């Protein structure tokens, strides 16, 4: 997993899973704490995530809310969009462009 960017926009790539969760959490929390306004999390380079990785994103979402910020997801890959819809988190998280639930491929 790699994360690059600043307190306004971060690009996450690789795998966001139990092995990378602690490092990702540290970077995301620092970015939330050091900035103001929306924090854009670009997931277009993300290969996969598991429940722990999703928990890291939800934790960053909650922390941003407590700091008066908003976490915005950008470039969410289709397989991850399906997971957000299945867990109904697409109703809670801010997703740039939204998720076209009807256009997602069925599995």
From TrEMBL:
This is Anti-sigma factor antagonist. Signal peptide: none annotated. It comes from the Bacteria. Belongs to the anti-sigma-factor antagonist family. Residues 1-107 form the STAS domain. InterPro entries: Anti-sigma_ant, MlaB-like_STAS, STAS_dom, STAS_dom_sf. NCBIfam families: ant_ant_sig. It holds the Pfam family STAS_2. It comes from Streptomyces fimbriatus.
